[in-house]
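PROTEIN DATA CARD
Card holder: Nitrate reductase
Chain length: 689
Origin: Colletotrichum spaethianum
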Amino acid sequence: MRESFGSDGQPGSYTDIDYTDCLFLVGHNVAATQTVLWSRILDRLDGPNPPKLVVVDPRMSDTARRATVHLAPRIGTNLAVLNGIQHLLFKNGWINQDFVSKHVIGLEQLEQTVLDYTPEKVEEISGIPAKDLKEAAKLIGNSNSLLSTALQGVYQSNQATASACQINNINLLRGLIGRPGSGVLQMNGQPTAQNNREAGCDGEFPGFRNHMNPVHMQELADLWNIDSIKVPHWNEPTHVQNLLSYIEDGSIRMMWISGTNPLVSLPNLPRIRKLLTDPGLFVVCQDIFMTETAAIADVVLPAAQWGEKTGCFTNVDRTVHLSHKAVEPPGEAKSDLDIFLDYGRRMNFKDKDGNLLLPYKSSEEVFCAWKKLSHGRPCDYTGLSYEKLTGGSGIQWPCNEANPQGVERLFSDAKFFTDIDVCESFGHDLETGAPYSKAEYAALNPAGRAILKACHYSPSMEEPNEEYPFQRWDPISKQPMFKAGAVRIEKIDASEKPQIPELQSAAEESCSSKGVDVTAVDDSLKRKRHLESWLGETYESVKQLSDIYTNLLPDLIHDLEIEGGVRVLRRITEDVRKRLSEQVDKFGEDVCGGSRKATTLREAIFPPIDTQRSPYEVMETLQGLHIYLSHIEGGLNALIPVSQACWDLDFFEAVQFGQTSMHRMQAWVNQQIMVRAPQSLLVPALVRD
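Structure generated from the sequence above:
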């Protein structure tokens, strides 16, 4: 959603099922996963004027059995299939040119990307017969309305994010969004996942705010009355595979698991069991059942389930519901909210004025605070209240003064959340997963238009085969593939008893031997912090840079323009050195190691002093300077999130000043290289003996 529309939030509505001419279900077996919704679809399929149904699923599921066209791709080839459909939309002129010319960007790149995905090529990749792909594209390309959905068959497969974006693309190319019967529902894997995303419970930020937008982060800081540097926005969210690696490395010593069961749900379960039962990890499990994970936890916090607490939840189509407590929770069980509030009080979290950071006494008080957080954002709740939500069947956000009864579907005006000051994300490179910068996003100039994101198909890291038919982890979308490792399923004769070790029992036995005080063992003497090493190398490199400008470059380059520029660069470098020296005094540094590495790089990059330098050799020297500046910039890049994680504003500002200064110097060096390049590289020069 963020990649295509600028922000999370489902464009469509469940009511679109009642109007649509064509349903496009990708990796979404509605008959098994959403039985109530399937009943609604069956009413349409078995009623007058039934919609066409296109299903993409490698299995002949109950949903696929009702399909007009069933596309059964090889596992992991969704992207090739979706690119193939778009190829046919372009080829056959099934594009709403008026809509795309006004309301989307990225059309030319998308058309160029899907050009080679002919039905024959897609058949070769996916196994889908070319005639079936053509028939599916024809149905989609000629329908007056189109409702597209996706679920785990997309999200937990190869190139998940890229594939989900292509589903959005198809509706955008057809101009079928924001209209009755037309839209996209990127379904959630869990019933309350949508409001978790709104509130920022999955590593995002409340109200779909952009962690790379300082204004958004300052809004949160002001609402919470804390310093903005204490809002943890220094990087992309840490996904679960990184968390597990940090546990493995020993840099995470405590894990609080709430409402999920990783000893069953995560891939590579032997590794998960080993990590979560490690004596050095303190595990807290908050759940309504004594799950496999709770059984190995050091502390179990019994939680209340839905009928035992009051609170709101949001459906996939943005419908907000209020669930009132029906019965008291049993025993010591408490609602998740009460557990977190109790923890906040015990930790004595305070705001800037010394008041409790979490002063709330009830779910309704928290809801009122949430309304303030959502104000002016795509998921605006300011028009909602417990009184308004009591009774009825929920209200779809945004619900505010302009839309007091909510909004049935988004983008009816074809205005998307892509304005640079509004968007939740600046997007990512769909092939590498790298986030785009604000400058890169600004260059796109989406300005309220949707973004067509293109991506080529790449085979998954582990191709399935008959022996190992399932896949594991997609490193770009950070999703497990079918929540399984590379496994083999075998039938066992009924008379045989499988000789399989009881791994859960072994995990519990391992955990029971941890002992009460084992996690309190002080191993600090065995640990070493590496900040001093990194800071030392960066600082010593800056000191060397000052010396390079003072003593080396004047002897290597005899050019008045460059000499004048070098004097300015030397002054800038000295300012950076002074700012960083204060942080070195505060945190310390590895002087010897840092100086040694800086000197080694300098000697490798720059030649010995030579009073006779040709234009080509001047170019080489400038290139060496660019490399050296890039080395320092890399060091400073790492220190930006470190300084934020330290909640040290002086440290952050010093590093930020260094970053800006490196960019200025690199810009000057780049300009000098570009000015000299044609003459130095194209015109033959005398070769010295």
